[in-house]
Amino acid sequence: MATVAVLGTGIMGAPMARNLARAGFTVRAWNRSREKADPLAQDGVQVAATPAEAVRGADFVLTMLADGPTTQEVMAQASAAPGTAWLQMGTIGTGWTKRLASTDLVFVDAPVAGSDVPAREGKLVILASGPDDARDRVQPVFDVVGRKTLWLGPAGAGSALKLAINNWAIVQIETLAESLALTAALGVDPAHFVEAMDDLPLGSPYAVMKGRAMLAGKLDPGFPIRLAVKDAGLVLDAARDTDVDLPLTEAVTPAWQQVVDSGYGDEDLSAAVRRYDVRPR
Length: 281
Known about the structure:
The chain is an alpha/beta fold. It is built from eleven helices and nine strands.
C-alpha cells in the first residue's frame, strides 16, 4: 500500500491517521506536540520526530494544521519531493489556499465538513478541488477518511465552500444560544425549545444535538470555539475581498472572542452559550 504522511494529529488529524493505518496504508505522522501523536503508535502509525522524517518517500502528504502560516511553515520543513500529492485538508481560508497552491507538488485543496465523531468513524465529507488528473490518484485516501467526496473544480473551490459551511454553523450556534436564553427569560424551560425544534421542519439534527449539549453543560470540543473564531476571521476576510456584507458574522466574532479570552477556547463552539443565562426560571 501507499505511504501517507499526516502532518497535524489533533482532534481531526489523529483519527484520520488511525483510519488510514487500519485500512492498510503505511502512515507516518508528525505533530508539533509529540504527545498528541505518540498514542497513534498503538494503531500501527509510525510517529516521526520531524515533518521531513514523516514526508520522506511518502506518496501523499496530508496536512491538517491550524492555519495557513503554520501549514506553510511545516511544509517548508517537510521538503516533499516534487510531484508528491499534497492533500491540504485543514481550514486555512481562500487567501492562504491560493498562496500555497503555487507549488511543484500536486496540490489538492480538500478541507472537510464534519467534526471529531465523523472523523473517528471515517464519515467526513471531503470538499475536494484541484487538478482533474489527480482525482483517481487521491480518491483511495479520501474513501478511507470520508463517506463522500464532492469534487468542486479548480483548487480553491473546496476552501471557499468550507468557509460558507462554517459560517452557517457559527451563526446557527449563536442564534441557538440566543433563543435558549430568550426562552428561559420568558419563563419557559429552554428544554422545551429544543424539544419543539426536534419536531419542526425549521429545526435541524445539528441544532437539536448542540442545544441539548448546551443545556447539559457538555461542551467537550468537537470543534473548539477558538478555531471557530479563527474560521470566522477567515470568513470575514473572504467576504471583504468579495464585497459581501455579513452583519451576523461581524457581530458574532468579537463576542465569541470574549468567550475564548475568558478561558473557554478549548471547549466546543457550543460554549457560545456561556454568554447567556439559560437556566429555567
